[in-house]
Amino acid sequence: MTLARKRSIPLGALRNERFILLESKSDITQRFVTECAKVGFCPNAPLHASRHRVLLRAVQNGLGITVSPKRMVESYLSAVLVTVPFKEQLFTTVGFVWAGDVQPSQLMQDFMQGVHDNLGRMGSLSYNLLD
Q: What whole-number distance in Å separates Cα of residue 83 and Cα of residue 75?
């Protein structure tokens, strides 16, 4: 059975895969590498990208697999990309930043509240495969 046909996969099962990851300072990449180390491997990631669209295009072209929020892949609208969740849920942080002497507008406050209220439905990280 190919990886793309699985319902979920343990992180350790990906130790021999080739990854395309966001740049090393990305929170997603740092979190993923840390979790890989916990299960005894360092991901083989010969290619890094600074933008999600470039990353997903590389996966679409068969250069490897990646780790990304499921919603990010769904918004890319590619019929050939498949997302499969990890058996272990991996989470990253989301934050809003503004200058300390500036009060966010009411629209921004409403937006932040909406993100806060709905964050649980956004899902955890999953890896994405070319089927």
A: 12
Q: Over 43-90, what HEC string results?
A: CEEEEEECCHHHHHHHHHCCCCEEEEEHHHHHHHCCCCEEEEEECCCC
Region for 80 from its dihedrals, namely left if φ exceeds 0, alpha if ψ lies in -120 to 50, beta otherwise? alpha
In three-state secondary structure terms, 103 is coil
Q: How far apart are CA 125 and CA 28, in angstroms?
A: 8
Kindly report the CA angle at 117 between 112 and 121, in degrees rounded to 5? 115
Cα–Cα distances (Å) from 26 to 14, 22, 72, 111, in that order, read: 20, 6, 15, 24
Cβ-proximal residues to 83 (8 Å cutoff; 6+ apart), any chain: 68, 70, 73, 74, 126, 127, 128, 129
How does pLDDT run across 112-125, given as a tens digit for each residue?
888 777 765 655 44
Supply the pLDDT for residue 19: 95
- Given a cut of 50, is residue 131 above it in pLDDT? no
